[in-house]
Amino acid sequence: MGAVNAVAVVLHPERDCGYAIGAVSDWARAHGATVLGRADELARAGEHAEAVTAEDLTLRADLIISLGGDGTMLRAMRLAVGGRAPVLGVNLGRLGFLAEIDVPDLPQALSAIDEHRFTAEPRSAVSAVIDGRETVAFNDIVLIRRPGDPSAAVALRVDGQPFVRYAADAVIAATPTGSTAYSFSAGGPLVSPGAEGMLVVPVAPHSAFNRALFLSAGEKLSLELLPQSGELGVEADGRLMGSVRPGDVVEVVMVPAAAKVIRLGGTTFYQRAQRKLRLSGSAEAETVVSPPTAVSPPHAG
């Protein structure tokens, strides 16, 4: 990452971002940088921000700052795809997994970025073509049962080879980043964001095989809707992108290092997970004291 000439801000749709925007604007003015914002968010991005399209933001930004929670961070990461800008996550409100700092730490963080005292952590995405459009997601792509319709009946193929069939409420294809989201709620494992691969997790499965899979990054996943399946919605990072019907096939592939997030070394993934999930450390085994066992007297010779 070279000189920062353009800083883009991505805002939470509802929370107050005033102080954070002010800190970004002050830093940008001091460094001769332009502040960019989506046209639909410009009224909240300050008078010195320049309205740009999503495409121009991706191409022009040297740094993208997400002001919000995990949902805002995911949106900022999707905007970073195809560009050169890493994403700094600034937490507003509830603690998330993806944000790196809280609002009061923003001026200090911007100084560290200016002095190149940070690392850029690559994050993989999953990609699929839905209704003729390529869709990229950093958490997951989900085939999900519509209310009132039959369950999902999905055949999985890996690199073209049939493997297993799921009958479930939904089937999740998640990145390591997404292992803390819907996949985790469905009973999937936590996966380090440094891992490269794809999680496949059934939701409320009622088929003979009900376990999650972890595929390597280079393997292509095919999800075919079986004749007995209901029509399924297709969600990407929680956004409804379209629907699929029996006979349709959704191909899901990994996109390695699709975006980069800034890490300043303040916390690790495991510390953030520990705080978010309220983990208190390893459980201590209780010592159970059994009553003394009666010993039979020896038999007389």
Short description:
The protein is an alpha/beta fold and 301 residues long. It has helices at 18-30, 54-60, 70-80, 106-114, 182-185, 269-277, and strands at residues 6-11, 34-38, 49-52, 63-68, 87-91, 101-102, 119-130, 133-137, 140-145, 152-158, 161-168, 170-174, 197-203, 213-216, 221-225, 232-236, 239-244, 249-263. α1 (18-30) links the parallel β1 (6-11) and β2.
Q: Please state the structural category.
A: alpha/beta
Number of individual domains: 2
CATH topology of the largest domain: Tumour Suppressor Smad4
Assembly state of the chains shown:
single chain
Rough shape? elongated
Strand order of the largest sheet: 3-2-1-4-5-6
Overall number of strands: 18
Mean of pLDDT: 89
What's the N-to-C terminus distance? Answer: 89 Å
The stretches of 5 or more residues where confidence is low (pLDDT under 50) are: 292-301
SSE order: EHEEHEHEEHEEEEEEHEEEEEEH
Label the CATH architecture of the largest domain.
Answer: Sandwich
DSSP helical segment count: 6
CATH level-four homologous superfamily name of the largest domain: Probable inorganic polyphosphate/atp-NAD kinase, domain 2
